[in-house]
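Obj: model holo form, ligand = adenosine-5-diphosphoribose.
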Amino acid sequence: MALNHTTMIEPIEHAADILSKAKSAVALTGAGISVESGIPPFRGKGGLWEKIDPMKVAHIDAFLDDPATVWNVLIKDMKTVLDTARPNPGHAGLVDLERLGILKTVITQNVDGLHQMAGSSDVIEFHGSFAWQSCLDCNRSIETSQVDLAQIPPRCSCGGILRPDCIFFGEMIPRDALVRSQQVSAACDVMLVIGTSATVQPAATMPFIAKDSGAFIIEINPEPTPFTSRVSDLPLLGGAGSIMPRLLKAIRRRLPST
Ligand code: APR
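Output (holo structure tokens):
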């Protein structure tokens, strides 16, 4: 069945019905929600991992073996892109849902800080954050905006090498982030899954935890993912930046005017 504009309206109206009655919705977001902010995804068309092998530049062993290469090939470019990136209507839509008392928490796999910049107040950074760097020797934290890239790899005042506070492949998810994400997923009545390819664990377990606890799963992605056939109750096929404003409009039509 070909999806067209007419077909699109219905799912959005259905999603608005569900969300307008939700009391404790949670969002799980991935790189896709930041694509319309100019940050490339990791997989699929124009994905970063289509160009560079993640095991060579985004695995902790690769970083510890050769931090200069990882800084040069990956981190410097990430800094340039993230320095100028700004939230888009996808991020703003989640802030609106929070202000309407519908959304409680955002679990994000993104390290770009755009949810917080948009105004989301409860964000679990499941894969850490690029906003800070830590010294491998003295563990001192330095704001990424303060890091001098004249020297690669950049160094701490103690002489130690700096690494971003993002979770590299081969590293554990911070315990607080993991436990809290499992708790809010088990407690939510609706989970909005936005812009993730559902390929990286353990983040990809959260919709299943939510579903097993009775939650309704709404997925927003221009393409079907492994979630679409396995856990999503309602896929909305399209970009987050165009779907979220239409979803909020449909939800507001259903809420008593304040
Ligand atoms: N709106 C919504 N979704 C989009 C958009 C958009 N405008 N553009 C692309 N997408 C979808 C793609 O179809 C894809 O399914 O976003 C998804 C992005 O998938 P990935 O690039 O694999 O990103 P993600 O799922 O967040 O990756 C998980 O992998 O590389 C690691 O640590 C990294 O956090 C990352 C993790």
